[in-house]
Amino acid sequence: MSFLLISISYFTERFESTLLISQYFLLFGIYLYLCLQKEKFNVREIISYAILFRLLLIILVPNLSDDVYRFIWDGRLWWDGYDAYSILPSEFLKRSESAKFLFEKINSPEYFSIYPPINQLVFIVITLFDKLFASIIALRLLIIFTEIGTFYFLLKVFKQLNLNGKSLLFYAFNPLVVLELVGNLHFEVFVIFFLVLCIYYFNQKKKSISSLSLGLAISFKLFPLIFLASFFKYLSLKDYLKYIVLSLFLVAIIFLPFIFSDVFKAIFSSSTLYFKNFEFNASIYFLVREIGFLAKGYNIIGTAGPILGLISFSTMVIFNLINIKDMKLAERMMWTYFIYLLFATTVHPWYILPLLVLGIISKYWFPIVWSFLIFVTYWGYTESGYIQNLSLISIEYISLIIFIVFELFYKRRIKKSNSYA
């Protein structure tokens, strides 16, 4: 497993599709074997090996994603006295020719930064180091420490729910988790940590700490706002309103230091583009888009994206208002997030990682299966750009839906058998 992890990370380019996907499939096969053998490990061994695997990537310059360069770009802008929310990279390049080296590495140079203030604070910290490589190492160390925190609180949540602590292996050894969080430095790592923290303290009946934890998750990536609906069935109306207010109040405090910047304008502008322009590995949206091509003769993302967003929001609210007996908080959050992903116009591989951890807590296998299937989206990368492969995307989602139906049927059958026992 170590050999494959090193090979796929250090010696494989993103556009080498056959080699990349083949190595990932082998890596995932070993992961599944370890999952089946989890009883042969103790929890201390699982944590130790998981940390060692992550440390293998300590000096890696991300090879599958270029997001880190935008992180560093934003951080350096703040140090140079510029508002990272108010100036486009393409505009800044006209003022500073020395920025050309980093500019050539960033994606979306014509878009304002979409990253919330707490992310910007992290960018500022890691760019204390003038060297690009040093900033990457600093961020990776922070992410590894956060992962260790996730291990610790996941074990506590497992104990609360009477789950086997060795199930930590399902998360800690998952190749997509290691490659996308530690390897490619995506900030879902912080969302996952605070969501686990949120669930743990909610189960402990420490609602205020749980609410603040969710607020921190929202502060890193705005999408955890959808999870506020998941708490409705577990609290009185008064306590539920308190929970929401406290969570959003923390978000507001975190935004406060940037109140005089163009943070709201930039995030609104980039978020609008997210729903109206960006499309990657979608499911329902791609079906709607094809209907649009047949009916209108052009890409209808400008109208379909926002409409699907409203349908997604309504579906999530209705789902969380329905009184489903015996559904635990983590499972409700899992299905809420799954609804969000189904209607999204963009679903990058690392987007599903919060779903993975919620699924593991809820004893569902389909998020693990998706973490295998979704890697095929890397097939479309070339040296000059990306080409959507709709055939592979169709296989991905059809296989996923079939497995979900099978898993739900199996769980229902087991539950019915137990009720007659």
UniProtKB/TrEMBL annotation:
Keywords: Membrane, Transmembrane, Transmembrane helix. It comes from the Bacteria. The chain crosses the membrane at residues 15-34, 46-64, 132-155, 176-202, 208-228, 240-260, 300-322, 334-357, 364-381, 387-410. Pfam families: MptA_B_family. This is DUF2029 domain-containing protein.
